[in-house]
Specification:
The chain is of the alpha+beta class. It is built from two helices and six strands, in the order E-E-E-E-H-H-E-E.
């Protein structure tokens, strides 16, 4: 049983590759270090994606997120890095990550980054009566 952080993102085959559906993952225990002060930064990551052929395996995602604990990173940089790594691993049709960082010096920071596969269009929203 792995109990150490890792940058490796494991994947598995999408069980419904012909259907657009959304996978939502909330990661409330993200931590990294402020590159200026070395103090810890805490955030909740909200990840939503429409898979194509692959999905990300959750335990590897947990270990991947854990790997940032001792790394210095600006909020904007780390949010975009996580998105880029996930897109490289699974090539989703669409992915959005929002990182809501806890207050630091009276300031809250929220960073949202998106990826859209070329040619993919979001399905029309159905409004029910």
């Amino acid at each position: 049983m792995t109990a150490t952080p890792s940058k490796k993102l494991d994947t598995f085959i999408n069980p419904e590759p012909d259907r657009d559906y959304t996978i939502s993952i909330k990661l409330p225990e993200f931590t990294c270090l402020c590159p200026m002060t070395g103090q810890p930064d805490f955030a909740t990551l909200d990840l939503r994606y429409v898979p194509d052929r692959l999905c990300v395996e959750l335990k590897s995602l947990k270990l991947y997120i854990w790997s940032y604990r001792d790394e210095g990173a600006f909020h904007e940089a780390v949010t975009n890095k996580i998105l880029s790594d996930l897109v490289a691993a699974i090539s989703p049709r669409f992915m959005r990550i929002t990182a809501d960082f806890n207050v630091r010096g009276g300031i809250y920071t929220s960073v949202t980054a998106e990826h859209r596969k070329e040619g993919w269009r979001s399905p029309e929203v159905v409004t029910l009566p």
